[in-house]
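User: Okay, second chain of the day. Same drill as before: sequence in, structure tokens out.
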Amino acid sequence: MKYAIPVVIILLALLGANGIYVVGQGHAAVLMRLGHVEAIGIAPGLHFKLPFAEQVKTYDTRAIVQESEPEDYRTADGDPVRVGFYVRWRIVDAGAWFDATNGDDLQVNQQMAPLIHNALRAQIGEHSLADLLGSDGGAIDTGLRDAVDANIRRKLGVEILGIGVERVMPPDDALAAVYKRMGEDAASQAATVHDEGEAAAAAIRAKGDSAAGGVLAAASKQAAAVRGEGDAAAARIYAQASAQDPQFFRYWSSLETWRKTFSNGGAVVVLDKDSPFMQAVDEGAAVSGSPAKKH
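Assistant: Same drill. Structure tokens below.
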């Protein structure tokens, strides 16, 4: 008898623990009795059930995202293409979901994926490869959802919230050729831009050289004009000086000639004393009042 009371207490505790269950936020529950569904869509909170006779299966009522691995398809032009997709879904009919999957979400993915793949194959078969590579996938996404939503809802009790096409690319054996062609196109465009730049630079240099030549020509012309005016003014001054005192001008001119001749300090000149040059020097010296030196 001394063990009877502890055993009873333990049994009552087990019965109480097994008779209480909690449904969390964002979830609902299915109540089963001996393998048969007794209640569905049980809301979050604290609930009671018959210990050991009833079982509870909870499920997520929020949106679930599933991604697929890319698979190979054929476009309208017969080109191979590899496409992946993602799908957002949620359980809206717990009874149909439980009957189809026995409460296992992996069964939802396994049964839903083939239906979406078949619909995606039909959608891709209506588009060319260029359309698929250049599109954001909006038209295909809408067509996919419309094609599979009603069927999946009826079979699995699941609502399709959205389907998105992603990772559209050629198969691996064609991808290298695509990259090579893209590289060649990029190199061709770069060469074209380089040639255009070189042509523009040459035109700018030619324009600059032409402008510089015009400036130099104008400057040379102006310099020649200034030199001509200077030479003319100098000639007038020399003429006036010569007219005022011809003998002194000849003397000054002789000295200027000597100065220019011996300006470098290394010239040697041998003159006859009767040369016109020496006579002019002598005449200039006589005018200045100094006796001419005999050579």
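The radius of gyration is 56 Å.

User: Thanks, on to the next one.
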